[in-house]
Amino acid sequence: MIEICEVGPRDGLQNECKIVPAETKVELITRLIDSGIRNIEAVSFVNPKVVPPMADAEEVLKLLPKRNGVRFGGLVLSRSGLERALKTDVDFLHVVTTTSDSFNLRNVKRTVEQAVGELSLVIKEGAASGKGVAGVLGTAFGCPFEGDVPFENVLKVAERFMEAGCTEITLADTTGMANPIQVQKIAESFFDAFGKDLSLGLHFHNTRGLGLANVLAGYQAGVRRFDSSIAGLGGCPFAPKAVGNVCTEDMINMFHGMGVNTGTDLPSVLETAKWMETVMERPLDGMLMKAGIA
Amino acid sequence: MIEICEVGPRDGLQNECKIVPAETKVELITRLIDSGIRNIEAVSFVNPKVVPPMADAEEVLKLLPKRNGVRFGGLVLSRSGLERALKTDVDFLHVVTTTSDSFNLRNVKRTVEQAVGELSLVIKEGAASGKGVAGVLGTAFGCPFEGDVPFENVLKVAERFMEAGCTEITLADTTGMANPIQVQKIAESFFDAFGKDLSLGLHFHNTRGLGLANVLAGYQAGVRRFDSSIAGLGGCPFAPKAVGNVCTEDMINMFHGMGVNTGTDLPSVLETAKWMETVMERPLDGMLMKAGIA
After folding, report:
1. For chain B, which terminal residue's Cβ has fewer other Cβ atoms within 10 angstroms, N or C?
2. Which residue in A has a C-alpha nearest to residue B293's C-alpha?
3. Is A236 marked active-site?
4. What is the CATH number of the domain that holds A187?
5. What are the tens digits of pLDDT across the range B191-230?
């Protein structure tokens, strides 16, 4: 059994050129829940001026159906994001930093050390409020400006985040640089460092066609939670260098072929992917939509 | 170290709408050789009326540069193909059948048993002529009309082909139905049946996005030869909804990231992929062309 964390409504739609209204996001999320997905990164509490497609976080959360066993996550990058999140009933805060100074300075004008210092307080306060807190570590498999990110640096950020109150860690391949051997090594090192019970997730982009090969390598190394995006949303050709996440239905198809339970109904997920293509009014990256279930 | 069998000039160009002249095929193959590729499926001795893009097999072979250590293969599906091949200096005959009656009847109007009977004679005569003979078994991972193809059936065809004189076997996922667990199981079963020294190759299509994940699974199971197509060109013209082969430069990028030698120069292969896009006058499927080498 693996767990899917569906990030299409957040990481996917954030990287599309067309802005989708809150009602459509809610319909998308409702459909995903109906197909069996139980962990959804639904919103982002990022500055609405910086990321307009995510400005409606509070509205989306208000409109979302409440269902037993379904968990909604929201991205938190700063104290101001935390303050917004704590006024909502979002279940999990996904607290994010990259692990490369060059990338982090360009992205949020802070070194990794500065970011981790500030975010540790955010994590503590979030955890104290009773919400779940997940730590998401970007550029964990390489940085487009620095190249390799030393594994020790990634591990150190994870330690600080877990000390502050994160109960799970997701390693993100922000710009699609991971390869299967590296995925295996990093995942095994994380289990060695934090124990086999660590709730470890992986977040891949299909930038260089390696998304599912990396998911496979992570699964073989013992990882059981994977981020993915319905229809491979997030690769709008007009967005600068955006390439979609691993595609949810393509990933489910792989796991079902391998005899691994995902808790989801693939034909129903596939229908939602096709519907999403009509919503976005452009061909999306998912392959199963074109080929059909084998 | 892995060996790439480049099938773009044959399996790729066969399924493109634009017909490419012999001189361009020769330029493509020459570029691939200059990038380090040593095994190239260059032509097909199929009926020119059925597959017009491949009608120039003899001309392409005459124009190709002769280089030490480079091997040119040609597809042979029948006795008439063999007769043409034997009049050329092609190095290897790639003798093909599918392993599913339904598929084979639609494709070449013969049951698998009938095809294997005829092709065994072709293989014997080809081997007796001094040329190398490789057996290629299509639908080895599933048939779009029948579903699963029993492993025993695939193994039986391989046995007959090797008895007749094939020195290597390639298992082909004609319509992109393979999954990594299945690849692992079939590859291991082949090594169990024929010994670890079996020259086993795998031929995947990226129909459902699993091309590189399946290559990875095959590599992990001990396979060291993989078919791929420059820029992701092509697919099987007889298979419903087939899409391109695994993309050569994307596969090289994966293996180099994993520290596995391919004997090729990736930047130079990538240049050829980009050139191929200008030749075909349409965007091709390769991902690395868009994202660049990490």
Report:
1. N
2. A208
3. yes
4. 3.20.20.70
5. 999 999 999 999 999 999 999 999 999 999 999 999 999 9
